[in-house]
Specification:
Blueprint (H helix, E strand, L loop, with lengths): L1 H39 L28 E4 L4 E3 L7 E7 L4 H16 L3 E7 L7 H11 L5 E3 L4 H5 L7 E5 L5 E6 L4 H9 L3
Length: 197
């Protein structure tokens, strides 16, 4: 009797999950049409959003990297989508992290030398004493690439960040090409970008 009850409960859970998935997908289609319409209004054909299914978005190599929007230290909103068509390093870091401090000069040097490589440094701002410390760190290291403030560490959660620094190397199509756990030096960064298409 218990066995049949468990089977019925399991079947119900599977059925409900399928129902919710179908319901969600049907409501998401109009939103993507709206996004495509607003992108085409931007007059830049290179930014036309390809149709990407939810199954293709993820954190593994070959997956489309999850999009996000954060505010920079300068007060501007920046989205990963803004950099589609370019190679991007999304680096998760904090000022109190010694390996993060160690790799920042190499990141800055690479950013200055390679025009075709973009860096988005996502600061885990919730773990900081305050934004002032992030600003001071940026000035001390002479960083000129965008510093994004993840106030609620929401984006770090989406990217399942455990150790920091962690860097996602994303190709011009928006796909994850490699993931680095721990600090990288300039040669390692360049090599990872050179291995991209």
């Amino acid at each position: 009797m218990k066995k049949w009850l468990l089977i019925i409960i399991f079947a119900g859970m599977v059925g409900w999950t399928l129902y919710e998935t179908v319901e969600w997908n049907s409501t998401s289609e109009p939103a993507s049409e709206t996004e495509e319409g607003s992108v085409s209004d931007a007059e830049d054909e290179n930014l036309e959003q390809p149709s990407i299914s939810e199954e293709d978005i993820g954190l593994n190599e070959g997956d489309y990297a999850p999009d996000f929007t954060l505010e920079t230290l300068a007060g501007e909103e920046v989205s990963l989508w803004d950099f589609r068509g370019q190679k991007v390093m999304v680096n998760f870091w904090a000022t109190w992290c010694p390996p993060c401090r160690a790799e920042m000069p190499d990141m800055q040097e690479m950013y200055e030398e390679y025009d075709d490589i973009k860096i988005l440094a996502v600061n885990l701002t919730e773990t900081e004493p305050g934004v002032d410390q992030v600003e001071e760190f940026t000035e001390d290291f002479g960083l000129t690439f965008p510093i994004l403030l993840d106030h609620e560490v929401e984006v770090a959660g989406i990217y399942d960040i455990q150790p920091i620094p962690t860097s996602y190397m994303i190709d011009s199509e928006g796909k994850v090409q490699s993931i680095a756990f721990g600090a990288l030096n300039k040669d390692m960064m360049v090599q990872r970008f050179d291995n991209m298409d």
